[in-house]
Design a protein that fits this description.
- It is a single chain.
- By secondary structure, the protein is an alpha/beta fold.
- Helices cover about 45% and strands about 15% of the residues.
- It folds into two domains: about 200 residues, 3-Layer(aba) Sandwich (D-Maltodextrin-Binding Protein, domain 2); about 100 residues, D-Maltodextrin-Binding Protein, domain 2, CATH 3.40.190.
- It has 14 helices and eleven strands.
- The protein has a six-stranded mixed β-sheet with strand order 2-1-3-10-4-11, sandwiched between helices. It has a five-stranded mixed β-sheet with strand order 7-6-8-5-9, with helices on both faces.
- The N terminus is likely disordered.
- Its main location: membrane.
Length: about 350
């Protein structure tokens, strides 16, 4: 081949390679990773949840075998947590595949993974959180110089409390006119309140009920009063996005099990309370007193609707609460395709993603 022609072909090849490389880069680091392929039902699914009445859908699904029935040959492994941030770490570390979790940590998981790690697939509970205080406290102003407990820094109740304090022009700190916020697990909070070491707590059910009934506290704020129509997502179901892509049939089975639990609980209140109490006894070694579980049950509504329209406000609340400098983006967080498929098959209306399914 003549030298000149060989040089022309070589130059063309280099140009083509450069173009191919440029295209590869344009579609590589800056482009979203390709979706994982559907691999059918998973061999095993790891599910996280809390031993709280606000996680009743999960507790009933386990106690009555609704999840196991729908999952079939897929093994269900479970792990309990006290608060959302620890559960987020397990999800992002891939030791969990799905989790019943508070709305605040759910948003944090989505933000920490830059919108790639987790997906909101359903709701679980609306309501079920209260600010309970000593009887001598009658207003927000009375909390100056007092100590309030929440389950964990940046968990759902922690954010709700700090938002409420800010709305009432109270600052978090250690000064005489500040409100000191401390974090402790729910059981410890009850002990601290009984000992007089704390003055109040923003707690989920059943712990708010136990603080009132066993600790002598009173309700200053029911969080339902802070939201339109008294509805807000206390507990939702999120899954690792990769797991959702690889095993949509398994996620659909979980959703069927949850819907079975919610429907059964709606029609069988007394039995549902008993099922929750049976699970709590297994998990904590002690069942709740009947008046405690009755009071807790009156605070919550079980629903597979994640009440997605509230999530933009929940993201802004993190800034108000001082948990985040800017509101985490929640666009693209929800994929309710499988949930609405399950609802449609059950003859129920679809639920809205509230725009969260759009990037």
């Amino acid at each position: 081949m003549p030298v000149k022609r060989r040089a022309v072909l070589l130059a063309a090849g280099v140009s083509a390679l450069a173009l191919l490389t440029a295209c590869s880069r344009a579609g590589g680091a800056d482009a979203p990773a390709p979706a994982a392929a559907d691999q059918g039902a998973a061999t095993e699914v790891h599910l996280g949840y809390f031993p709280n009445v606000t996680h009743a859908a999960a507790l009933i699904g386990l106690e009555k075998g609704f999840f196991a029935k729908e999952l079939g040959s897929t093994k269900l492994s479970t792990q309990q947590y006290n608060a959302g941030p620890d559960e987020v770490g397990a999800l992002l570390g891939k030791s969990l595949d799905a989790a019943f979790i508070g709305s605040g940590p759910a948003i944090n998981a989505y933000a920490k993974s830059e919108g790639k790690g987790v997906t909101l697939v359903a709701g679980a509970t609306s309501g079920g959180a209260q600010l309970v205080v000593r009887n001598t406290i009658t207003s927000a102003a009375d909390l100056k110089g007092k100590t309030i407990a929440t389950p964990q820094l940046a968990n759902t109740q922690d954010i709700a409390l700090k938002k409420w304090l800010a709305a009432n022009k109270l600052t978090v700190g250690t000064g005489p006119d500040d409100v000191k916020v401390t974090n402790s697990d729910n059981a410890t909070t009850l002990d601290l309140f009984k000992k007089g070491s704390i003055d109040a707590a923003w707690s989920p059910a059943p712990w708010s009920s136990r603080l009132v009934i066993e600790g002598g506290a009173k309700v200053l704020v029911d969080e339902r009063t802070q939201w339109p129509d008294g509805k807000f997502p206390t507990t939702v179901l999120i899954v690792r996005t990769e797991f959702l892509q690889q095993h949509p049939a398994t996620v659909e089975a979980l959703l069927k099990g949850e819907l079975d639990a919610v429907d059964w609980a709606t029609s069988n209140k007394a039995d549902a309370e008993a099922a929750v109490n049976a699970q709590l006894k297994k998990l904590t070694g002690k069942a709740l007193a009947q008046n405690v579980i009755d009071d807790s049950w009156g605070q919550i509504s079980l629903t597979t609707d994640p009440i997605a329209a509230q999530f933009p406000q929940l993201a802004k609340d993190q800034v108000t609460a001082g948990v985040a400098k800017t509101a985490p983006a929640v666009q693209g967080f929800a994929d309710l395709t499988l949930l609405n498929k399950v609802l449609q098959a059950a003859g129920k209306p679809a639920v809205s993603a509230g725009g969260l399914d759009q990037k």
